[in-house]
Amino acid sequence: MSLGIVAAMIAAISVAVLVLFLIPAIQSVRQTAQSVSALADLLANELKPTIKELNEVLAELKTVGGGVAEHTDDVKKFMSALGETGTQITTINRSVGAVAGLLNQAGAVATGVKVAGTYLLENYLKRKMKGV
Q1: Helices H, strands E: what count in the chain?
Q2: Rounded to two decimals, what is the model's pTM?
Q3: How many Å apart are CA 55 and CA 63, to the nearest integer?
Q4: Residues 27-74: tens digit of each pLDDT
Q5: In angstroms, what CA-CA distances link 70 with 57, 59, 79, 132?
Q6: In angstroms, rounded to a whole number, what is the distance separating the alpha carbons of residues 8 and 3?
Q7: Name one Pfam family in it (predicted).
Q8: What is the DSSP track for 70-81?
């Protein structure tokens, strides 16, 4: 056997061994490509509608947020009016308190006048009866 034949046989054996080792690697690459293709299909079929729904939800949230912002001024006006009403009620309570105080004083004066009138009448009647 010549050296050329031996070299050709070694090359043929090397190629055969290389092919034997490459076949599982090529099958693994093929399976990976199929998995990536399935994932791409899943993303296209499932993720796109989900993103669309999320965009719709965001649009609704923006609408609700705008509505809340519009009514914020109404709430501020209501709270301001409520504060003014509280101030006016406080003023009315002070006025009622002052009138109640005056009525108490008037009642006390009336009682004093009554007592004084009774005292003076009794003294006057006593003097009249004695003939003074």
Answers
A1: 2, 0
A2: 0.39
A3: 12
A4: 998 999 999 988 888 877 887 888 888 888 888 888 877 777 677 777
A5: 20, 17, 15, 90
A6: 9
A7: DUF948
A8: HHHHHHHHHHHH
